[in-house]
Amino acid sequence: MKRILIWGLLLFSTPALAQQKEYPSFTRFIDSVFRAVNVKVVDININKGKGKRDTLFAAGGYWARRSLGVVKYYTWIDKRLPKYVDYPDFLGIYNKRFEDTIRGYYHYRYTPHGEIRYGGTGFIAMEAEPTINCNGSSCTYYRYPVIAITNQDTVLQVFEHNFSITGLHYADINHDGHLDFIDIHCGLSDDDINKVIAKDNGVKRELLESSNEIVYKITLYTFRKHKWEQLKDRNGNIYCVIIALAEPLQADGPFKILLANWPG
Predict the structure, then answer these.
(1) Where does the record locate the signal sequence feature (predicted)?
(2) In contact, 255 and 25? CB cutoff 8 Å
(3) Using an 8 Å Cβ cutoff, are 4 and 246 in contact?
(4) Contact at 8 Å (CB) between 221 and 230?
(5) 243, 247, 246: which is closest to 257 by C-alpha?
(6) Could you tell me the CA-to-CA distances from 227 to 30, 51, 104, 230 in Å, in that order?
(7) How far apart (Å, rounded) are the C-alpha atoms in residues 179 and 222?
(8) Other CB atoms closer than 10 Å to residue 192's CB: what's the count?
(9) Which site among 81, 110, 199, 239 is 20 to 30 Å from 133 CA-CA?
(10) What residue ranges do the domains of the chain occupy?
(11) What is the pLDDT of residues 51-89, one digit of tens each?
(12) pTM of this prediction?
C-alpha cells in the first residue's frame, strides 16, 4: 500500500487556512472549512410512488418520466431488455429537462438535506453512486447534481467526485453572499505537480504522478449572476487546496496540505 510521510500540517500562502489548527483527520478539516452558516436546509418529501410515466419518443424503446417530488427522473426503457431493467439517464425540473446529465447506471436520490436556500437562491441537491454493474474507471465516480433555482431560470451543475472522500459540502467561503460548493478530484495535472514541487516541501514527483488515491485537489464552484462558475481570486487564479492523505482513500486519517490558494 502506498504511504506518505506526514511531517505535520504545512500551510502555505493563505491567511484563512493558516488560522486552522492541526486537525486529526482530513474529514474534520473539511467539516471545519465548510461551515454552512446562515444556510437554510429542508428535507424534501420524496414522492415514492412510480408517478406518471410519459412516453417521450420511441426508437427501439422509449423515454419514461417519473416524479421524484420536485425533480423529474427520465429513464430510457429498451424494449429488447427485460422489463425490470431501467437505465436512469437524465433529470428535469418543472418544464425543463437537463439532457446534459445523461449518464447510464446512476440512480439519483436527494441528499439528506435536499433543498438548500441561501442569499435569495434555492438549490436542489441530489447524489448517486455507481451501481454494482458498472465497469472500469466509471465505478470510482460519484455524482452530485445541484440545481440552482432563481426567479429567472433553473441551472444545473453536476459535480463528479472520483472516490468521493468528502461527499457534497458547501458554504459561503469568501463571504460574498453566494454559496460555494466543493469540487474534489484525485490526481494532479502536470502544471499542479510543478507548482507543488516548486514549494520544495519534500514531496517527490514520483509520488505526485502515481498516487491517484492519495493526492487530491479541492476547488470551488459558485452560482452568481445566473450561472455556475469556478471561484477565482482577483488575479484570475482559481482557489484551490492540494492535499495528501497518509493512506489511500483514508479521509478519516491524517493528511498534509501541499499547496493552497484560498479565500482569506
Answers:
(1) 1-18
(2) yes
(3) yes
(4) yes
(5) 243
(6) 25, 31, 26, 10
(7) 6
(8) 17
(9) 110
(10) 19-36+174-263
(11) 444 555 555 666 677 777 788 877 777 777 665 555 657
(12) 0.80
Whole-number percent of the chain with pLDDT over 90: 26
Close Cβ partners of 169 (under 8 Å, ≥ 6 residues apart)? 30, 31, 34, 181, 182
241: amino acid identity, one letter = V
Is residue 16 within 8 A of residue 260, CB to CB? The reply is no
For residue 222, what pLDDT is reported? 96
- Give dist(CA 51, CA 252) in Å, integer: 40
CA distance 249 to 63: 37
CA distance 73 to 53: 10
223 near 179, Cβ under 8 Å? yes
Q: Are 17 and 23 in contact (CB under 8 A)?
A: no
Question: Closest by alpha carbon to 34, among 221, 244, 228?
Answer: 221
Long-range contacts of the stretch 12-15 (C-beta < 8 A, 24+): 12/199, 12/257, 12/259, 12/260, 13/260, 13/261, 14/260, 14/261, 14/262, 14/263, 14/264, 15/264
Residue 17 Cα distances to 13, 59, 70, angstroms: 9, 54, 37
How many angstroms separate the first and last alpha carbons of the chain?
A: 36
